[in-house]
UniProtKB/TrEMBL annotation:
Keywords, in A-Z order: Nucleotidyltransferase, RNA-directed DNA polymerase, Transferase
Record GO terms (molecular function): RNA-directed DNA polymerase activity
UniProt key word Glycoprotein: no
Pfam families for this protein: RVT_1 (PF00078)
Protein name: RNA-directed DNA polymerase from mobile element jockey
Length: 221
């Protein structure tokens, strides 16, 4: 069965030639040839649909690049629709901590956010301290633990006393001080357009909670 002719059938149903060939033959190179033929068949059959999606992607990319050049963050990208999900295994669901809120943002807004982060990293990462391990490519907690243990062993070999203080910040993302972000971007000479977009990204944000037939809205800044 090939499918019902809809776009979803491409993803949920395998081409019949693939299933028949996998059942009766083990030669993988022939399977690849059949897969190529099937891909060409579906591409021709759904060419118009693919072109429409491609044009939409091109338009959205143009909007994203324009916003990044101008340093502009649209209002619609800063509205979070909160979905409240009950946590499993809780005895009482009358307490707020028995629920997990998840904020859903615009897809294109999240995409531009990732593009913005990548561009900021490109400008700022070379200026960061070598001991910065969090949110750094090819660095992680294993590297920080290795450096820590190396330092401890070196000091112990010199008969020194080791004192360590560990600080745990609960809800670090929720409690980030936004003026500090602004000051650090200025200190690291972040490009004007990226700085402006970050400032716009942090302004006029709104949270919309819909649950049990009710709705609540709150501006976060």
């Amino acid at each position: 069965m090939v499918g019902d002719g809809s776009e979803n059938s491409i993803l949920t149903h395998s081409p019949p030639v693939l299933r028949i060939h996998k059942r009766h033959s083990a030669r993988s190179f022939q399977l690849v040839l059949f897969a190529d033929d099937a891909a060409l068949y579906y591409r021709a059959r759904y060419k118009i649909s693919i072109l429409l999606h491609l044009q939409r992607a091109i338009d959205e990319l143009a909007v994203a690049n324009k916003c990044l050049r101008l340093g502009y963050s649209p209002r619609a990208w800063k509205v979070a629709a909160i979905k409240v999900i009950p946590k499993p295994g809780k005895d009482y669901y009358s307490r707020p901590k028995s629920y997990r809120p998840i904020g859903l943002f615009s897809v294109i807004g999240k995409t531009v956010e990732r593009m913005l982060v990548c561009r900021i990293k490109w400008h700022i990462m070379p200026k960061l301290q070598a001991r910065q391990f969090g949110f750094m490519p090819q660095r992680g907690r294993e590297d920080s633990l290795y450096d820590l243990m190396t330092h401890i062993y070196n000091e112990l070999s010199l008969k020194k006393i080791i004192l360590m203080v560990s600080l745990e910040i609960e809800g670090a993302f929720d409690n980030v001080w936004w003026p500090a972000i602004r000051n650090q971007l200025l200190a690291h000479k972040c490009p004007v357009n990226l700085y402006s977009m970050v400032m716009g990204y942090l302004r006029d944000r709104e949270v919309v909670v819909r649950y049990a037939g009710g709705e609540s809205r709150k501006m976060t800044w």
